[in-house]
Amino acid sequence: xxxxxxxxxxxxxxxxxxxxxxxxxxxxxxxxxxxxxxxxxxxxxxxxxxxxxxxxxxxxxxxxxxxxxxxxxxxxxxxxxxxxxxxxxxxxxxxxxxxxxxxxxxxxxxxxxxxxxxxxxxxxxxxxxxxxxxxxxxxxxxxxxxxxxxxxxxxxxxxxxxxxxxxxxxxxxxxxxxxxxxxxxxxxxxxxxxxxxxxxxxxxxxxxxxxxxxxxxxxxxxxxxxxxxxxxxxxxxxxxxxxxxxxxxxxxxxxxxxxxxxxxxxxxxxxxxxxxxxxxxxxxxxxxxxxxxxxxxxxxxxxxxxxxxxxxxxxxxxxxxxxxxxxxxxxxxxxxxxxxxxxxxxxxxxxxxxxxxxxxxxxxxxxxxxxxxxxxxxxxxxxxxxxxxxxxxxxxxxxxxxxxxxxxxxxxxxxxxxxxxxxxxxxxxxxxxxxxxxxxxxxxxxxxxxxxxxxxxxxxxxxxxxxxxxxxxxxxxxxxxxxxxxxxxxxxxxxxxxxxxxxxxxxxxxxxxxxxxxxxxxxxxxxxxxxxxxxxxxxxxxxxxxxxxxxxxxxxxxxxxxxxxxxxxxxxxxxx
Amino acid sequence: xxxxxxxxxxxxxxxxxxxxxxxxxxxxxxxxxxxxxxxxxxxxxxxxxxxxxxxxxxxxxxxxxxxxxxxxxxxxxxxxxxxxxxxxxxxxxxxxxxxxxxxxxxxxxxxxxxxxxxxxxxxxxxxxxxxxxxxxxxxxxxxxxxxxxxxxxxxxxxxxxxxxxxxxxxxxxxxxxxxxxxxxxxxxxxxxxxxxxxxxxxxxxxxxxxxxxxxxxxxxxxxxxxxxxxxxxxx
Lengths: 576, 235
What we know:
By secondary structure, chain A is mostly helical. Chain A has helices at 7-12, 14-31, 54-59, 61-80, 82-86, 89-115, 123-138, 157-179, 184-204, 206-216, 218-231, 240-265, 274-287, 301-323, 328-348, 390-413, 416-426, 428-433, 438-464, 474-487, 492-508, 516-530, 539-545, 550-567; strands spanning 371-372, 375-376, 381-383, 386-388.
């Protein structure tokens, strides 16, 4: 964009460009009060005049933001004082109007596909498209604003806490709204809208400010994140549809966090990790009181969980001890094979080809729900007048498991063991020369990660009711790995986000399921090209991927000195 | 203190070190000279336990060293600053030093030793929270030496500490080595810069294609015609 239009042109035409953009934004806003489609089926009904649908009301956010960004500085930059300089008005408006256009296009495409033909788009849709186009043409003609400095504006602690809490509340509210979009068109449109708003906020420097506020108030952040996560079932009115997805996401995320230790911290490529989840699930299934259980030992669940974890980590030791002495690629191949061996073995332990332990490909079904001290996980409970269903019970249980994993992970990351792990990842030979017992540490990571997967698997067995070998195929290992890489290796928050994206999208975009792998392949390629460190970057890793980028190096340097060291001299910041 | 007897080390079928023997006495600076591929770095790696011996023995303070795992060797009191520095580039200076002290469990003494490294190399102290990869070559070399010192070794092995450094920087590094020796650290130095190495070495061994050709005191080797021709650029 910069190369196409010279700065002089931009300065010369800044007034007409602003007028065009404002007219465009106004048109988009006006369009929300007009009908967008002729049929009721598309986007949860956008056919009313004067009464926008909930989706349309949310959509107002984007053009509204663009309009504010265009008009406010024009009314008087002086009156705004220091904030006038802290905000990148024009560039943010540009991002906003491009995001508006993208969202409108997706919405119109959804209408056209659902109602079969562009002809079904009514006047409002075309007004929105025209307006968005105007704004998208107008805003790039505005002069570039300087980099936002909002993140450097000093704010009192209470404001930071309010900011974090507001962010968390917004996340809860928007996530529950997004999940309640049952048709793919609405979900995608809303998703595009959210991505657009996030991009604008980033351009504004709001995200930068938030991340500093978050780093300043770690406890508040973690606490509010968990409060929000625990509150989520209350937004679902007893419906199990979304809670089922949410609890699956958490089980997936717990396994991904375990894999994150192995891949993210120690740098060992494990392509058969799903086998450990499977080992935990099968152990718990066999020890459960299911009618298909093959042994006569049914301990209470807390014991079962421990046994499942131990079985998984024993498998980890079994596979790790001979292979961890060799490096990189070999380990990947061996673990890949191990994952398949596990699945085939579970298939064969059917009484014909071996002892009957798993009923072969039928697996073990009819696994009863958990029951803790009379709290039956299979029953709905009414809390604060809201019905909390079966899946919500498992969701809460998994949240506790994840909280535990995160505590363990964070403590390890900044401990002597964690330092040894990262050293192995960065340069194994040097680590060895420094006196790090690399083999023992790698084995520990392998067994520890397997233990976590085993625990998650034990809950999964009861959650899923049945356990069969074909749930634990290589593809699942690949997805776990993709969640770690996509989210950001070595970070907790990144992996949680990555796991959510990879598990949630296929559930919501079922019409796309045939192209699911294609889509993920594309997503991974795009990520590797533009953001190899993942959505959330580990501070240490940023340098690995952009080592040559002097500017970035300086930025990290500056950031490390200016805030992290002051904030956490003993911990050097906290990546969450 | 350190005695290497008839040591053979191989990469696959190729013998990189073909039966060398040498000794390092306590408090000395001993240097291994030789061209690329002479087997100097391999020798250091073998002493550190990073590669297994094919045959031969390594003795350190009356104990057999060969066959021990690398981290056990560090616990016995031998540290190495490996060839090419091999810092943990994404870690801070402080974390690099902490890793150097990985084998130690005396936290307060580690802290004191860390301060000693910062005293020795003030640049590192000023930027202790910065990633090691952001430092210049000379500064990285300082960190590599500092890191190796953090295990409080009785024997410090330095693999080409002057590689890629300016003459002034090389001088600084050599001065540091002399200071370390004055503090009682025994040093085994591998260098291509023969002039610098020999002028502080008590003893020098000249390696060629995996064998020790000859050895003498550092001063004598500086005056030796063969050394002068091969390594000091004299006719």
